[in-house]
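Risk register update: the risk of archive-format incompatibility is retired. Evidence:
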Amino acid sequence: MKHAETRPYADPEAAARKLIELATSIPSVQDGRVHIEKINAPFLSTFKATGPEFGAGIKYAIEKGWLELHESGTYVRLLAPERLLAR
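Archived output:
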């Protein structure tokens, strides 16, 4: 019998927190923007997360007010640090 492996980023909050950690480690470009591929690539390849986990993490971070996603979907912007600490 095969057992399913526990996915560390299946929880949207855990995924969002890892995405915030990644976004804060990347130098921003104009106006604090971080290109989405700069957080997407390491999240998927280095941390072996899935596309749906990435999407759920981004959505959670936006709902919590941690990130702002540009309407084009090409970059995110970190919002006020005090929001990151609120649970």
